[in-house]
Amino acid sequence: MDFWIRLLTGCMAAAASIGIFMVSFSNQSDSSLLHVSFDATREVLLEIAEAFKKEMRRQGQTVPTVIHSHGSSGSQARAVVAGLPADLVSLAIWPDLDTIVTQGSNEIVDKKWLETPSPWFTTMVFIVRKGNPKKISSWEDLDRPDVKVIIPNPKVSGNGKLAFLSLIGALQANGKSNSDINSYLKNIFSRIPVLESSSRAATLTFATKGLGDVQITYESEAELVLKEGLGLEKVIPDVSIKAPLPLAPINRKGQSTQQKQLTHKYIEYFSSEIAQEIIVKYGFRPTNLAVHNRHYSSFQKPAKFFTVEEVCGSWLKANKELFSQNGLFDRIMAP
């Protein structure tokens, strides 16, 4: 029960976080960092921050205070554009970082970060009820009339966008036509009982309200739920999307040289073996080859990844053709 209280408290706190951070951290000290991130990273970022502070202490350097703000990835990006005094952001999808680059004032994120490789990535998996009563193992199984799916709303959630792209990409990988894919999507979304606004809200709906037979979500979110012994299981399909998680520093007004240097050092720390091991612990996937090899048996599935670029050409094209007004998602949802 404590677990779900923490999640609910976090979800409610996210709604109020923008105003609080605007007031509380407008005059941050040189040894403090505000890390703005998306919902599903709460636990992993807390542990990485503690490990980073331990390393700074070991080096005899000033131990920083790392403060976290969490919410849906898109809303966090818009908050930074609106003036949330972040020092760095970690976001669920590339378009949210692009929002900050293109809409933020005074080049608050250098454009090079849109092309900079991320130190971690995730993929989309299934969470099912204990024993997998509906025997769900593949993307095709989601099309059965007795299966109800839970995902967040792709219009507002990075998790939802990746789930939607995964549904398309998995069928493309199996040689299905656009007509087949559209019918498949329409069937699935006609049986979704509720479209929540974020990955964490969708997890609460699936795990506590008992809605749905399967949830499509980040692998990390699945791992978090499994650790709580809630009568759920993870199923990794044979094919799924590879989704890098953008990480970038913010150049904000009033930021000291020391804060900028500290931010870059913290971002570099994400590629260290210690941080990469923490990333694995919480169900994210590392880019450090040594860490990957140590956990090879855990990473045998999906046997094949596809990318957003392979599904739709680019994120910009995906947003325009799938998630904009009258895009594919809107057409799928139309009666």
Quick summary:
The chain contains 14 helices and 13 strands. The protein has 335 residues and is an alpha/beta fold. The strands form four sheets. The protein has a four-stranded mixed beta sheet, with helices on both faces.
CATH superfamily of the largest domain: Periplasmic binding protein-like II
How far apart the termini lie comes to 39 Å
In spatial order, strands of the major sheet run 2-1-3-11
Helices and strands, in order, run as HEHEHEHEEEHHHEHEEEEHHEHEHHH
The stretches of 5 or more residues where confidence is low (pLDDT under 50) are 3-26
Give the integer mean of the pLDDT values.
Answer: 90
Report on this model:
This protein is α/β, with parallel strands linked by helices. It folds into two domains: 173 residues, Periplasmic binding protein-like II (D-Maltodextrin-Binding Protein, domain 2), CATH 3.40.190.10; 149 residues, Periplasmic binding protein-like II (D-Maltodextrin-Binding Protein, domain 2). It contains 14 helices and 13 strands. The strands form four sheets. Strands 2-1-3-11 form a four-stranded mixed beta sheet, with helices on both faces. Strand 1, helix 2 and strand 2 form a beta-alpha-beta unit. Helix 1 runs antiparallel to helix 7, helix 2 packs antiparallel against helix 10 and helix 5 packs across helix 6. It is globular, with a radius of gyration of 20 Å. The N terminus is likely disordered.
Question: What keyword list fits this structure?
Answer:
single chain, 335 residues, alpha/beta, D-Maltodextrin-Binding Protein, domain 2, 2 domains, 4-stranded mixed sheet, 13 strands, 46% helix, globular, disordered N terminus
